Amino acid sequence: MKSSRLMNLVAPAVLLGLLFFGCKKKIDEKPNVVSAPSVSAEVVVVATVNGDPITLAEFQERFVRAGFKPDHEAEAGHGVKDEFLNRLIERKMMLLEAQRRRIKISVPEVNARIEKLRSEHGKDIKEELAGLGIDYEKWKSDIWEDIMIERLLARDVNRRVSVPPSEIRHYYEANPREFEKPEQVRVRQIVVASEEEARKALEQLQTGNADFASLARQKSTAPEAEKGGDLGYFAMGEMPAEFNVVFGLPKGGISGIVKSPYGYHIFKLEDRRKAGKESLEDARKEITEKLRRMKEDARFKQWYKELRSRTKFEVNYQALEQKTQSENGPR
To answer: 16, 81, 129, 285: which one has the fewest Cβ atoms less than 10 Å from its Cβ?
Structure first.
């Protein structure tokens, strides 16, 4: 559990330019492969971007900061490390472009982002990163890079995309089946570990001695507890079978105790939406976000292609298999 929560801290810092651009907006083309000269006899260079080197040491450090354990690096296949290097190259390319465009990020901005992560995860970031063998200052530098890339993309991609009302209406009218919605319910839940705890909670609710949302915040072990147990709207079949009991409740009704692999549940039906076609106004936000994503993807691919065409790459994939003398000692 601890390591998975830390990935939420590591991923925003390192994977913005690795997973986000590598998956959602992936460009399959690899950089030109040539042998890149080492900058000195003691430093192995695995790639250069407009003459700016990426060393083997930097690759290995970032590999760890992306969530790969140092002792598992040898187990990672050639394809994994090659692709990781490609993403590092893309990241450096965008950072160099941001610097060329004189994009500036202040120390308070970086600190604010770190404080946001700290408040979201409720943990001592330095302590947890240290437990994973990750240097805090280098992780902080990754945060700075992330904000630089975000600012660059905001200028060159996001702000150049708009979704006019006419396009929203056209999409709505051209895709009527997409807006046919089944019956949906909005539900709160309380989840506890034992049946005895569930009985006590249900008794409090039935006697009126507790508000459902407040009790969920106090007692529930589920992730949505901080939201008063609010699961939002869902249709039949979108949740585990144990949740289907809520479709038989009246509005405001509270279920009995329901056992599942997750624990003992108590549900409350907050609202019910009838099946039918969603109105244009209700669908407007969803359509706008969908069309914006599509346009941003297309704009990004065009922008990326132009940026790549004026960037010089030199890549030495074979160097990824090398180890420095300081790591392995003389042969």
So the answer is: 285
